[in-house]
Design brief:
Helix content: 55-70%
Number of strands: 3
Radius of gyration: 19 Å
Number of domains: 1
Strand order of the largest sheet: 1-3-2
Order of helices and strands: EHHEEHH
Number of helices: 4
CATH architecture: Orthogonal Bundle
Structural class: mainly alpha
Strand content: 5-15%
CATH topology: Multidrug-efflux Transporter Regulator, Chain: A, Domain 2
C-alpha cells in the first residue's frame, strides 16, 4: 500500500488538455487497474473514451482522482465513505453557488431599478 505522505509528494499536473491512463497513473501514483475500478465506483469520474475504448482524462479528472486517493489512502475512508464525502462536497458547492447567484440576481435587479428611474 502507498505511504500516506506520498500525496504531498505527487508531481505537478502539466498543462495539457488530455492525459492517458498511463500518465494519470504516474501523476497520481495509482496503478491503471485501480483507476479503471474507481471509474466504476465513483460516478464523478468519467474520462473521455475514444478509438478502441482508450481513456483520455482531463485536468479535473486528475484532480478528482487525487481527491479520491487522499480520501482512501491518507484519510482511511472506505469506497462507500469516500463516495459519500465527494457527494457532500458537491452539494456544499451547489449551495454556495445558489447563494452567489441569488445575491447577484438581487444586485442586478437593484441596478435595473436605478436605470429605470
Amino acid at each position: 500500500m502507498l505511504e500516506p505522505s506520498n500525496n504531498n509528494e505527487l508531481p505537478p499536473i502539466p498543462s495539457k488538455r488530455y492525459f492517458t491512463i498511463g500518465e494519470v497513473s504516474e501523476l497520481c501514483d495509482v496503478k491503471p487497474h485501480v483507476l479503471r475500478y474507481w471509474e466504476q465506483e465513483f460516478p464523478q469520474l468519467k474520462p473521455v473514451k475514444r478509438r478502441g475504448n482508450r481513456r483520455y482524462y482531463q485536468r479535473q479528472d486528475v484532480i478528482m482522482i487525487r481527491q479520491i486517493r487522499s480520501l482512501l489512502y491518507d484519510q482511511g475512508y472506505t469506497i462507500g465513505g469516500a463516495r459519500l464525502q465527494l457527494n457532500d462536497n458537491n452539494h456544499a458547492d451547489d449551495r454556495t453557488n445558489k447563494k452567489a447567484i441569488n445575491q447577484l440576481r438581487t444586485e442586478l435587479e437593484e441596478v435595473l431599478a436605478i436605470l429605470r428611474r
